[in-house]
Amino acid sequence: MAYVRDAWYVAGWSRDLGPAQPFALSILGDPIVLYRSESGRLVALEDRCVHRLAPLSLGRCEGERLRCMYHGLLFDPDGRVAEIPGQDLVPAQARVRSYPVVDRHDWIWVWMGDVAAADEALIPSAVGLSDPDWILGHGQMDYAAEARLICDNLCDFSHLSFVHANSFGASETWARSRPRVVPLDRGVRFERWIVGEPRMSGRGEGNADVWQWYDFMVPGILLMSSAVYPEGTAAACGMNAPAPDRALTGEGVTFTSQAVTPLTDRTARYFYSWGPRRDQGDAALRDMLMGMADQAFTEDRLMIEAQQRVIDATPNPRIMPTSADKGVTLYNGLVHKLARTPGMAIESAA
User: Fold this and answer.
1) What gap in Å lies between CA 349 and CA 342, rounded to an integer?
2) Does the global pTM surpass 0.90?
């Protein structure tokens, strides 16, 4: 599977990176070290010293710079070697790659492609944990599976009826209905009503109508709003978008920002937040939602890691799409277009 290089990938939560604390990770197989300098500048460098390839993430922050703690080479934030202990001449080629990096929406974003093409306007509009309009919890988990499989999962919610029957209590309506799917310049939009659904929150009696829309953006960012309405609202709206202020107070409007980051070709990291709009819920609702999310996303991980093992054990694996795969197909086609690689060879849906 190809991935888009010219894109912003989530490297971690802003709050988890303290000052002068180098942090190591891989994105798309590239070893990267992140650190905050003395002035608060966020820096992302190749995690590989030019001398003997020791990891700079084991280094020491010194003001704006990072020192390799193997033989003491000192690196500027742009990746150039500023000092070699015991040697006056610093070769012009003594440098490591520096990655554009931005702190936004309480996530740290790293641009993995052409530095000249790095455009902060391409950072998806996530809702950060510090946004005053929302009460959000957050989490993350690592997968022993390629990121593409997680992205496929997030572009097809028909699995909710079966994978998440226990956590979300999702009915089979999710599997038997189809969302409205709209292509975007760098993603896919999904909109749908689920009519007469049991209330996940357990607040109130009877069923409700659930309105859900989300954008799934390159390189794997899900931005989703959900709202619970009195039964009959979907029909009254003609199955179109409802007014947010008519949602059921106390369980109505929620938002989740999620990010899938390929670490290597068979590992990925999944970030997520979820909670209610401040005027539509409280911390107790947030905690209940996050409890369900932790359970549900563990269910996803178990299924997807098992799927990866089957794929790895299958010679020339091929998939047979169904009508639920429209969003998956559109998103993967967009990824291949932006990655400038040939599209996937898959069988046509019946």
Assistant:
1) 20
2) yes
